[in-house]
Amino acid sequence: MKRTAEGPAWGEIAPDLEDLAQEIRQCILTPKGSVPLNPEKGCDLDQFRDRPMNVRSLFVVAEVREALKLWVPRVKVHEITYQTTFETISLNVTWSPVEAVGDDFQTTEVAYAF
């Protein structure tokens, strides 16, 4: 099912690369322990809430990279950049599909509020 910023788009399907970008966003925004039959799925970003901002960003990037490697095996992550404020962190994940013939990189932006 296709999801937009407003919520699910009923009756629509996310095509090809949009499906992968949606899966990346969903993996990052899913807290660990929130999926009843798979409690390890997702990112545990709330554990870094009280860390200093310069250190918090490094931990968040490492956690996101590990979660994507484990839970989204259809993509190869090339780079994760971030911009941070006191209460939010904006991640830009540069990735390509594992099955891709060329090296077309895609970028998915995810905003996470602490």
Explained architecture:
The protein is α+β, with helices and mostly antiparallel strands. It has a single domain (2-113), classed as Nuclear Transport Factor 2, Chain: A (Roll). The chain is 29% helix and 30% strand. The protein has helices spanning 16-29, 53-71; strands spanning 2-4, 7-9, 75-84, 88-97, 106-113. The strands form two sheets. The chain has a three-stranded antiparallel β-sheet with strand order 3-4-5, covered by helices on one side. The chain has a two-stranded antiparallel sheet with strand order 1-2.
- How many angstroms separate the termini? 27 Å
Helix content range of the residues, please?
Answer: 25-40%
Spatial order of strands in the largest sheet: 3-4-5
Biggest beta sheet attributes? 3 strands, antiparallel
What fraction strand? 25-35%
Assign the CATH class: Alpha Beta
- Topology as H/E string? EEHHEEE
